[in-house]
Amino acid sequence: xxxxxxxxxxxxRAALVDAGVEFFAERSYGQxxxxxxxxxxxxxxxxxxxxxxxxxxxxxxxVERVLxxxxxxxxxxxxxxxxxxxxxxxxxxxxxxxxxxxxxxxIVLLDA
Length: 112
Hints:
Blueprint: H1 3-26, H2 34-41, H3 45-52, H4 55-79, H5 84-99, H6 102-111
């Protein structure tokens, strides 16, 4: 695959995953028909399968994105702490705050 095509595919995949985070924050994985998912994303079933292999593969990419964002927030919260213990506490508090977010709770704690 030429470099430019790979870059376009990566941007498309990232945009789909970002839209998927919003979608699965509203709809449970088990309660979201594939037809509704591709309709909301504005792609065909074939396009989704091309990038992710399946609805489950797409959902796994969404979970990974949500967890990556949480890891970034935890790292940021603990970076400025004076010692290891304070950093651990800051990271734990960041996780607890994330766990109270409806989107995080639905995607990571309930559906994943």
